[in-house]
Amino acid sequence: MLTPPPDFSTGLLTAALHEMWGVEVAQIDYSPVGFGSHHWSVVDASGQRWFATLDDYATDGASVASVGRGAVLSSAYRSARALADAGLEFVVAPRPARDGSVPFELARHRWLSVTPLLDAERLPVPEAQSAEQRRAVVEVIARIHAATRHVVGIAVADDLALPQRAVLDRALAGAVRPGAGPHGERARAALAEQALAVRSALTSWEEAARRAYDSRESWVVTHGEPHWRNVLAGAGGLHVVDWDTALLGPPARDLWHVAGADGAAAEAALDDYVELTGRAVTLDDLAAQSLRWDLTEVALYVAWFSRPHADDADGEVAWGGFTESLSSLAARPEGA
After folding, report:
1. What pTM does this model have?
2. pLDDT per residue over 303-321, tens digit each?
């Protein structure tokens, strides 16, 4: 998130880092990066740099409905820890707290995790990446998928549900009132204008989800969001960060992030993946995951704008994500 949580003190974070990780904080600064979690960069008394993440689920936005969101987050981070411990050197996994927890439950619905802060840069945006860079990311994804055995009994399976689906359905029926804030009423109007396209997309996703569920015996451990913001390049090669969405799921859940859902770059990524794994993934599989992403964005932001919300930088990012995904759904060919 671009703004720090209003009801969370740096003093509490500093105390938790000391008590649960033995980190003596010399400097701590809020890092306005990513969207969904809060982050701080930390320098300890020895000069070691750390990255602290607060996942706040005080509101219901679970991506897996069958179990509590805290349990899903713990499963995701423990899966990353297991992959790193199994020798996947590019996995940047959270460090266990002193009580062994990964992540540490700081308060009800609030979870704290700590990873080393790397001296590395994000990859370029997809359209600026070279074929060699995309191939390198596919190789990393293939290694993650091949390591599924290391997370048996740890990773949670994707339930293929859309978060906030009930809110979205009610909003499409006109039964959700806009929340107080700068985007509530115009979000309601924008959704009403594209209601037909969103309903068609929901039907398409339900059909794709049934097909994906029928193939669940071939599911693998997936990162969930291995896009350019979560893959860093440093002197030691690539590093994959931000493992809060790790689940057992279809390989396409990861692969569509590499080169999109269609076009020559997507076909090349699939060819590379088949060469590396012997496992076939289709463009239709990628398109289904891309569709799911847009529907998820729309549903989450409809829920956001149905609550009181601030006129701040985070709200502007949310509005941009909402309108971008809504436009993408509206531009889909009929029946696709």
Report:
1. 0.93
2. 999 999 999 999 999 999 9
- In angstroms, rounded to a whole number, what is the distance separating the alpha carbons of residues 108 and 77? 18
SS3 52: strand
**Greatest Cα-to-Cα distance within the chain, rounded to the nearest angstrom:** 59
Q: Tell me whether residue 170 is exposed, middle or buried, using C-beta atoms within 10 angstroms of its C-beta: 0 to 12, 13 to 18, 19 or more.
A: middle
Query: Tokens representing 234?
Result: 């440093």
Q: What residues contact 285, with CB distance under 8 A and at least 6 apart?
A: 212, 250, 251, 252, 255, 256
Close Cβ partners of 192 (under 8 Å, ≥ 6 residues apart): 174
Q: Using an 8 Å Cβ cutoff, are 148 and 284 in contact? A: no
Q: Which residue has the tokens 């499409």?
A: 172
CATH topology (fold) of 65-94+127-336: Transferase(Phosphotransferase); domain 1 (1.10.510)
Angle between helices 313-330 and 195-214 (to 10 degrees): 80
Through-space distance between the first and last CA atoms of the chain, rounded to whole angstroms: 33
The neighbouring-strand residues paired with 38 are 54
Burial of 269 (0-12, 13-18, 19+ CB in 10 A): buried
Does an H or E element contain 280, and which?
A: none
CA distances from 308 to 56, 189, 302, 305, 322 (A): 17, 17, 12, 7, 16
Instruction: Kindly give the parts of the chain with pLDDT less than 50.
Output: 59-66
- The whole-angstrom separation of Cα 10 and Cα 213 is 43
What does the domain layout of the chain look like in residue ranges? 65-94+127-336
